[in-house]
Amino acid sequence: MSHIVFLLVPGVHLLDLAGPAQAFSTAADFGHPYTLGYVAEQALLPTAQGLPLVARLDWPELGPEDLIVVPGWRARTLAGSPAIGAAFLRSLRDHHDRGGTVASVCAGAEALGRAGLLDGRRCTTHHDVQDELARRYPRATVVRDVLYTADDRVVTSAGIASGIDLALHLIATRHGPAVAAQVARDMVVYARRNGHEPQASAMLRYRSHLDDTVHHAQDLLDARFDQPLPLSALAAAVGVSDRTLTRLFTRATGLTPLRYQQTLRLERAEHLISHGTTVDAAAGAVGFADARMLRRLRAREH
Predict the structure, then answer these.
(1) Would you give the end-to-end CA distance of the chain in angstroms?
(2) Cα–Cα distances in Å, from 171 out to 28, 57, 143, 183?
(3) Which residues form the HTH araC/xylS-type domain (predicted)?
(4) pLDDT at site 196
(5) Other C-beta atoms within 10 Å of 138: how many?
(6) What's the CA gap between 271 and 276, in Å, rounded?
(7) d(Cα 282, Cα 291) in Å, to the nearest integer?
(8) What are residue 101's phi and psi, to 5 degrees?
(9) Where in the chain is the domain with CATH 1.10.10.60?
(10) How far is CA 224 from CA 68, 169, 237, in A?
(11) Are 40 and 70 spatial neighbours (Cβ–Cβ below 8 Å)?
């Protein structure tokens, strides 16, 4: 069981909180055991959008596998942010010291800075306060204009909706990109990653569409990319003809189903090879009958 605890301050932005909360809740719906909790220094908490929230005043017992998230709040400047008590800041530090992960959305990076968790680490925040964050915490490296950063179990994201990207990244890190893509699909959002970097996984890179039939086919291919899966069987499984599936799949992803499966195999093979597996062994592990096809795909890719 993993606890996801949101540290809330007065004036918290609802989407800063609701975006990652929805992502982890959806992952729990798919069988990944998350328990969400909300702590604050006052039981009834005003939000930036006017909807009051009820939070607990005490922290649950947390272990290294658990996560604390600090959503952002409404403030013109980080210096003018709401006060956060020394005990709550100490709880952030202690959790990280014990091997846990801490994360922030938008202005929530200010809380991590006050706790001393940004020193010597890469971080980001909303573009309106990036310069101020860099001035306030000169020992931190503020990365501008990216969706999120991750550095030594300190994960920070940009403004508002980027909290969803942060949550999807953490889900992908813990459970793999297929689960993150499944969550993104259920939430009807793009499975995005850092804005300045390409998608790190084909399972995420080709999910930026809303065609449910193609998503279903991709789910099957993601789960069985190392097994024979003829086009006719794939089409039958999603309830369309071979020709229709090829047309829909190509329109949504730019690839045929076969090329998508080969891309998944190639990506996994490259990972194995980079960790010392021979080309022949990697080819067998990802489902190629022999290594010649893998060598041809690698040559074409490079």
Answers:
(1) 42
(2) 11, 27, 22, 9
(3) 215-302
(4) 47
(5) 9
(6) 9
(7) 8
(8) -105, 140
(9) 224-301
(10) 34, 23, 13
(11) no
**Cβ contacts of 96 within 8 Å, gap of 6 or more:** 102, 117, 153, 154
**148-151 sheet: strands from edge to edge:** 34-39, 2-7, 67-70, 101-105, 154-157, 148-151
Q: What is the mean pLDDT of each run of 10 residues along the chain (302 residues)?
A: 94 97 97 96 97 96 96 95 96 97 98 98 94 98 89 93 93 85 86 51 77 91 92 97 97 96 92 88 94 93 77
C-alpha to C-alpha distance for 196 and 250, rounded to whole angstroms: 26
The pTM for the full model equals 0.76
> In b/e form, how buried is each residue of 194-229, taking b as 16+ CB within 10 angstroms?
beeeebebbbbbbbebeeebbbbbbbbbbeebbeeb
Domain with CATH 3.40.50.880 in the chain: 2-182
d(CA 217, CA 189): 18
Q: Within 10 Å of residue 17's Cβ, how many Cβ atoms?
A: 23
Amino acid identity at 182: Q
The hierarchical CATH code for the domain 224-301 is 1.10.10.60
User: One-letter amino acid identity for 221?
Assistant: L
- Rg (alpha carbons) of the chain, rounded to whole number: 22
Determine the Cα–Cα distance for residues 183 and 199; give it in Å rounded to an integer. Answer: 16
Report phi then psi at 9, rounded to 5.
-125, 160
